[in-house]
Records
---
Amino acid sequence: MKSAAAGHAAVDGARLHPRCIVCGNGNPGGLGLTFVPSADGRGVEAAFDCRESAEGYAGLVHGGVVSMVLDGAMAHCLFHMGRVAHTGELTVRFRHPVQLGRAARVRGWIERSHGRLHVLGADLWQDGRVKAVATAKFLEAPPRPSA
């Protein structure tokens, strides 16, 4: 994966929205995930500690938190490519419960882009198993006219 699309510098997502619950350092209740280029070069990835504050059912990470982390990975993939876009559609498939207190890894990648529309994928791994997968459509805001 190229680090930024032609004519687009990479975007620091944590600086763009410092109070983001997924990546912002200015949110004391946030997850504080740090996304880096993935080892396979297809996108980005981050470690997720599955802390107790993310609990839904006893001993399990809440499905909404899993969805949020997957969405964040896809957004950061776009940031890495120098694009800022918002989620227009998100589909998550939960394959296995995500356990609290056990390290997990989340990855995001671009499947395809058409102008301002981007289709992305993401997955969350724990204990060597894919626990959840997501696909999403992101839409960039139209360019603002120059003043």
---
Amino acid sequence: MMDTSTVISLAAVAIAFLGFILNSKKETKADAAARAVIQTKLDSLISVVNDIHSDLRAMRETVGDHTERLGKLELRIDSIEQALKERK
């Protein structure tokens, strides 16, 4: 038969093993929660970046339209100035 010290040693090893397993599960749950928070924040950042990209694309189109209109106005001003010079 096993003596008392062997039984106590085996019981201590079993308790330590169970404690390790339970503690590692808690850490895993905490890690999963932290990962979920990080993923949520990353998703939010991606959404903001996509919105900025869309806004930038719209602003480029607007600037292009304004550039075209400004060019036409400059041509009209030049022709008006030429017509005024010819009348003098």
---
Amino acid sequence: MQYVALIVALFFATPAAAASFDAPKRKSGLWEIKMSSGQAKDMPAMQQCVEEKTDDPTKMAGSQKMQCSKNEMRKEGDKIVAESVCKVENSTAKTRAVFAGRFDSAYKVDIKTTYEPPLSGMKETSSVIEAKWLGQCKAGQKPGDISMPGMPNINMDEMRKGATKQP
């Protein structure tokens, strides 16, 4: 699970990625998100309740702790490409993520990261995130709520707000 948190944090490494366009927002409702990689096999899908007006996938809780010298987002044809270079512990992580699909129904993100020097023995990692819109959020859910089997529910919006209040 720590690996997954690292990959997601690296991808959304700074509070706002530099973009030459308005980054798309996901459609309001319940999204199923599946993540797979060589290091995180057979992870259960998670579900996130999203509000389009407040959805900002370029912000991530804890990202203020990372030092990034590059964080760019741009359109390349019908895809969105995000690239970052960040310090993680004593390593430099170079990440490239390619988004494909539609943010109102389903999308896929291919993420590749290299570490120099290797981070905890990892020289490079590859991950795939696949997300699909399921419909309206479940009763009692609020935007930012994430549920995953066997884990307590968390709210990413509240985590982001808490992270921005820290020095």
---
Amino acid sequence: MSLDNTWMQAQDRAKKAGRLLGEVLEKKVQGERPVILVGTSLGALTILTALQYLASLPGGDVPGYVESAYLISLPAAPTPEEWVNVRKVVARRVVNAYSESDWVLAGVVRYVLPTRGILLILGYTK
């Protein structure tokens, strides 16, 4: 298995796009109106990365940029501390929607990245 497989490349691009989205939100290119972010799979990873970027800004608490964030089938397992940081930068709701029976995503992620964090997504705790 190569480290440059398609899934790894897509995850890397989603994280880079998330950083860019975070920078755009920081500069308030959208104006003063807060945004609602909705993403599925790698789009959810992009949103998570953007929110983590906003949380890392000096001051840390920047509510108002994002009204709500909906992450559907997120291919990551953020730590409780990461969720707390993400929550600080969202004014209303952060929703992590997933299905325990989503074996396609679970199988792809498990095949490519068999790490503890990803296995937590699949329900393995050992």
